[in-house]
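Lay summary. Proteins are chains of building blocks that fold into shapes, and those shapes determine what they do. In this project we predict the shape from the chain. Here is one chain we studied, written as its sequence of building blocks.
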Amino acid sequence: MMVAIWVTLILGQLLRWQVSSNIAVYPHDLLAVMLLVWLGWCHRRDWWRVVRQLSPKHYPVALIWLGIVLLGLNLAVLSGHSILTASLYLSRIVVYAICLGLSTWYVGLKPLWLWLGWVTVGIGVAYLGVWQYVLIPDTRFLSILGWDDHYYRLVSTWLDPTFTGLVVAASAISLTAWQPNRKQWRQARDVIVILLGSVVALTFSRSSYLALAVGWVGTWWWLPKAERKMWIVTAVIWAASVWWAPKPTGEGVVLTRTSTIVARQGIWEQSLTSLVGLQNVVGRGVFVPLPVVPGTESNAVADHGRQADNSLLFSIMSFGWVGAAVWWVMLAQLGWFWWHRDKVGSVIGAMWLLHSLFSNSLWQPFTFLSLGGLLLSHYRLEQQSVKNGS
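And here is the predicted shape, written in a compact code that computers can read:
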């Protein structure tokens, strides 16, 4: 079942089933539910024992945040908003989170194979993205279905260069932590990492470039000195790919483009001024659609249900100013915990978080499932290495 989840993630939007104008279902949604039910039942005694051991004193910040989320949704109902779509979006994220936790420790695969499976998601998306870039560089026709009109940008099967660039960059960084014994395997790993860096270059996603740069700097200190040249070669080929890639007329491949900055500024102003009264404290409700910015109305199918395009604005609109502060404190605590147990995984988490400040990859379903699985499997692999070393 894990293999099926990995394959459906690689195929991405090609398997999308549009239920309504703002609700879409993917095969990995159903597979995640099935896996959750199966593992939950098979390990129900362990699951129940963990639940009984939980106490409010163990997770006070998380409980405060959960209370704010529930208050925000109730306030949305009282304000006349329908929370059906928001509840479905939230349920999907909750199912993903629980499924990832159960599958990481109970699925029965060796930690190395589980980690390689999640890394393969990024490699598979990159591979299909190269074919898309060569055969269908003009994807502007997808604007009919509500997607951005990209031209000579690698969007792969996810149909989005920003999210594609992030998952490929994360897979490249995660691979650097793999130190196989055989020289042939290390050489193959180096070649894959270099090629993945070139794929990120072809997305022309500046947030993905920034995430990859953070990964380069962060992992440099843990790489053996003999292997640091791999990063130098990757950086050179990445720069060459950006320089030599076709740049036809259009702003998408212009790295100095400003239209997106202006558009986001308008969304920020419109969104923050829409908060009134208690909404400033607990938000409008998680995944409740943002108000429509005048001039941006469209009859096309919306992929994201008019959600904030970055994690900072998303947290303020969903949880309010107080709830957002609690949320970011909780993330800081999680980061501190991870840093002392899996430093390379912490670097990948920092890449993800930084990327989400420009594109809301923190809550996007594909990136949540792919990078969440990558982080947890890398954490388990690291803990096994520590255990075997001791």
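What the prediction tells us: DSSP finds 15 helices and two strands in the chain.
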